[in-house]
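Note to self: the last two entries modelled the partners one at a time, which told us nothing about the interface. This time every component goes in together.
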Amino acid sequence: MTDIYLGADRATDAEAAAVDAAMRDRGVDAVVQPETERLYTSGRSRRLERRHYLLPALHALQNAVGWISPGGINYVAEVLGVPPAEAFGVATFYDLFRTEPPDHDGDTFHVCVDAACQIAGYDDLVASVRASGGHVHLGPCLGQCERAPALFVQGTGGRPDYVPADAEPFELPQAGDPSLRLLRRIGVADPESLESYRAHGGYEALQRAGEMGADAVLEAVAASGLSGRGGAAFPTGVKWRAVAAETGRPKHVVANCDESEPGTFKDRIVMEHDPFAVIESMTIAGLATGAQNGWIYIRGEYPLATARLQGTIDAARDAGLLGPDAAGTGHDFDIAIWRGAGAYICGEETALFNSLEGFRGEPRNKPPFPTTHGLFGEPTAINNPETLLNVLDIILDGPDDYRTRGTERSPGTKLLCLSGKVGRPGLYEVPFGTTLGDLLELAGGVAGTGEFQAVLMGGAAGSFVGPDSLDLPLTLEDTRAAGTTLGSGVVMAFDSSVDMTDVVVRIAEFFRDESCGQCVPCRVGAVRQHETLVQMQKRGSLSPSRRALIDEMAEVMVDASICGLGHTAASAVRSALSLGLIASAPS
Amino acid sequence: MTGAATMTETAVTITVDGQPVEVAEGSTIHAACVQAGIDTPTLCWAENLTPVNVCRVCVVELEGSRALVPSCSRPAEEGMVVQTDTPRVRHSRRMVLEFLGSGVDLSQAEDLHDWMEAYGADPDRYSDEEHPVERVDEPVKVQDELYIRDYSKCVLCYKCVEACGDDAQHTFAIAVAGRGFDARISTEFDVTLPDSACVYCGNCVGVCPTGALQFKTEYDLREVGEWRPEDQTVTRTVCSYCGVGCNLDLHVQDERIVKVTSPSDHSVTSGHLCIKGRFGWQYVHGE
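The predicted structure of the combined assembly is written out below.
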């Protein structure tokens, strides 16, 4: 008698070996559990045993043979004690997994079709990949908007994933600028050398934090006024204190490295070029909150960042900076990396937890919040790399010094992802309060026709602003008052030559594609919104009743969706309509 | 199920549409609405399943909350002030019902028809002849003699998944697969039910609110226009197969059993049965 029914399909040797290797890498024996044991660990309770290895196991299958076969699913189901129907449900959730045999040999060339790559013209890239015999898969933003059009190559037959552009030399647009804080080591310290990181001040903050103790670290972070840089701007000190106050259960620090907001690439550059800073700041978060388990959930399209972070973790562990009594702080802390597999929604924190745990990346209803019910239902502090990086200077120089930059309500500096039609696209760091116009100037001004049409602030989930916003100070409070958002730091510029209807229709399509499908307002609303805009594009105009319908649909998505994806799915569309960037009246 | 507090439980008091309602701690806002006699539409909620709060038709306005909250899963907390009939609430409920009706066939979702009328939902306004909208349109899966699956009627309420899994049967034969509008309830690789883990308890059929899952007997009668609920009688009895004592409701039309359910408030079954109680009635007719 067994509690997991498996069909007749069996894994090939290659599939089984790939899964076994992935499990071995994580210290798990790929031994099938005895049936009696499985009988008593059915359902969601299995998650604490093995279920969270599902995503790595599916990656292994996909990489080995180019798809996830019925035999492969059955093997994973047996090894991890996951019902095959559920494993299939998880596999079909992600863009990077195929559940049908590939109709091509070799690797898959993912080309981005979102705004920055759209206006950079991805057609030529597609043509050149096809001309050399590569199989092209058109998909959402790959987080390389500063070097659009973007390409990511997904390996098969055991070959690794790679990004061709990673082979190019890298330089920050602001290289050498002495005012840089968060970016000061980038291009200066060797990202693959712990010695180099230390030579540039690395691990001084952790040592200081160890001397200060958890309470003083929490006090400093709270006093600094640091808020989350992923878009929601929640006060980091409040979050960390809430986790620190939880006792009696395992606790977690999760680095949300799943940046997938179209136009966002800041965390990628930080992780690729200053990976030790991410690890060090996570360790401080562990010390401050009393969490012993660190997790990096990184988007699957970031192979270089993943490799560098893994190298960093290994080096830190060898040097005693991770593990028992990490860095002599008296606190045990270690970090594991989990790769996402192509799903924008997994950047939403509760969707990320579900994804990491081996469930579909569907957001959870809040409350309860992650600080009490996060990863595995346990207290969790989840922050993105940019937020974490700020902690290093807050510890080293103190909150008062930190507050000398930025504004009273938006202290510190902000990383901004400049892309689209600007002279020098790339990652910039400026104090909060810098105006949009000054930032664009810093990035070489508007390119193309030189005539400024609009800027997309905050990505697909953000909104457009027009030329009258050049004086807008880039702070949380000013952008909010102006009805827009800094979001994840996207500043994407469009000159007068760009057909904004194409851009807005694609944004609507993005939400249609990326809605997880769980709640009705977003699952259906995102489809109807896109259909309405496609109609508009065909007709060249939008009737008053269709214009009203867009607002009605937006209202239910904002009011009744489960998560931020639905809440913001109409935001850019409506701002484009009210700015008159796209057809708004019958012609 | 009401949320009324017993002598031994802690009570909390919330205000619903201006009236104070006292419920046991841990009760939901929905339970408070029921207790106050306020009719609240639900689709993915059922008293014998864990709330998944995905349909969003039960949303209410909660003072201090930016967005509306799902009443079916949000626990009532002392002092909460809830509004269930504001323009925002009515708009969201109407749009959710409209969205559903615009994408799937709700003709047999009888519970929803009154709600759609009450909220003025007009699912047809999204499409015109020139621009048809995307709908879920799939052939009916008739794979055995016990029940059929018609996913063009599925609203993705997750009830069948819950009943097959953690909430009742622990068989896990089905799950949600795919993403967004393409998400479907599916076995692994969409294998047929006889090839899947399905044990034919029919508990998924028992909780389906739209007729997407249906007894084969009902499906066959509907196909020939002979399904007549108004002519059916329901007789409660106890299952004769084993000693557990499950209550069965036999739905009889023209002196033949056409389907079997179990009362969801029954202490033994909570509405759930096994293959024998659910489908094993043919011997009654002596064939």
